[in-house]
Amino acid sequence: MSKNFDVVVIGGGPGGYIAAIRAAQLGFNTACIDEWKNEKGGPAPGGTCTNVGCIPSKALLQSSEHYEHANHGFAEHGIEVKGLGLNLEKMLGRKNTVVKQNNDGILYLFKKNKVSFFHGRGSFVKGDANGYEIKVAGAAEETIIAKHVIVATGSNARALPGAEFDEKLILSNTGALAISEVPKKLGVIGAGVIGLEMGSVWRRLGAEVTVLEALPTFLGAVDEQIAKEAQKLLTKQGLAVNLGVKIGTIKAGKNSVSVEYTDAKGEAHTGEFDKLIVSIGRTPNTIGLNAEGVGLKLDERGFIAVDGDCKTNLPNVWAVGDVVRGPMLAHKAEEEGVAVAERIAGQHGHVNFNTIPWVIYTSPEIAWVGKTEQQLKADGVQYKAGTFPFLANGRARALGDTSGMVKFLADAKTDEILGVHIVGPMASELISEAVVAMEFRASSEDIARICHAHPSLSEATKEAALAVDKRALNF
């Protein structure tokens, strides 16, 4: 006998599990299907983000930053460290513990909110507006019936042709988080979020890291002034970033990988690496979903086609997160998941793509929201800019981290904030004030007039807002 549900969510990543919880809160009989397994074969909901993405990478970034501080930064504070050592196995073990805590937390939330959880791979069998039959292929195969289906199956790492991931020598984000010994030479193809974060982790732990990026500019999606500052700071730390590179043949040997490439000048090189991380983007995951079996439409890039409300071409079938258009960000998926659950309930769920923050968790961190200066120029928008360096911030001096700046972009006539860009300490936390301000269509003058605690890093935000009107007080 099949079990019937009002809402079935396929995928338990940030978009999926949040959609399921919100649907349950709204009174729907809800189920969530997810196939991730832990080391013992048990359920590990949370998707790529929790298992091999956002959460474990931040754990390793934090651990590696502590190691670098002890190795290079403590002396300035009068802290003398002798006999410093690295227990990589324990560091990776801590990362795994953090992941498990998050997995268990999601299972607890399902139980708390009365969401039925099915461990296995979910796929369409048949259905229409009256209901959809969903097969769960797990330890014991079963079938459930859903009135509404939310597809949240996420994305997979994109491999280079001829260089498939073996997760031993040629690594995706999954393998990059589980290297058992610090490589002497590490190659990274792709200077995006994953490439820079993983490159930073292993550089801090002692690897010689070479980053190969096809684009001629560093972090092309980031405000140019901020990107240049970030490149300068990361290069100074020892991250070798090569731009305008054309990748040739990649050969995996017994214990190393060779990469043939030409640089921006057209000169040929061969890089020999102990490990190679390939981070050239991600592809939507519709494998095994049987989209074609029920006529679920995909677009030309393989994403599930949806409208502005995340509706697919099938009645009562929705899709959110990495498997649909828009930025591949966990928090974007969460917002879409909540919005869809509320739309199913007849409410007006809302996601504002213009105020979704972006963060790169390098050191210094890079965070931004809204338009970049180059976008405003391209759109012919008249704007004013204000910047403030952390070098002039008292709290940053006390922390011993004065790198970077805060940058405000505001409409030249109305003073409405159009974009805020930060490179520096705790940028991931500081950007939230800018997101709130932009959601309420605040002006730079509004932020400039708000009292910020002293001493705090947030004062740099206030000062950058003041600088839009050329009246910064501490620089």
Automatic annotation (TrEMBL):
Predominant cellular place of this UniProt entry's protein: cytoplasm
Alphabetically ordered keywords of this record: Cytoplasm, FAD, Flavoprotein, NAD, Oxidoreductase, Redox-active center
Locations listed in the record: Cytoplasm
Pfam family, one: Pyr_redox_2
Reactions this protein catalyses: N(6)-[(R)-dihydrolipoyl]-L-lysyl-[protein] + NAD(+) = N(6)-[(R)-lipoyl]-L-lysyl-[protein] + NADH + H(+)
GO MF annotation, one: dihydrolipoyl dehydrogenase (NADH) activity
Class in the EC hierarchy, top level: oxidoreductase
Annotated FAD/NAD(P)-binding domain residues: 5-337
InterPro entries the UniProt entry points to: Class-I_Pyr_Nuc-Dis_Oxidored, FAD/NAD-bd_sf, FAD/NAD-binding_dom, FAD/NAD-linked_Rdtase_dimer_sf, Lipoamide_DH, Pyr_nuc-diS_OxRdtase, Pyr_nucl-diS_OxRdtase_dimer
Record family assignment: Belongs to the class-I pyridine nucleotide-disulfide oxidoreductase family.
Protein name as annotated: Dihydrolipoyl dehydrogenase
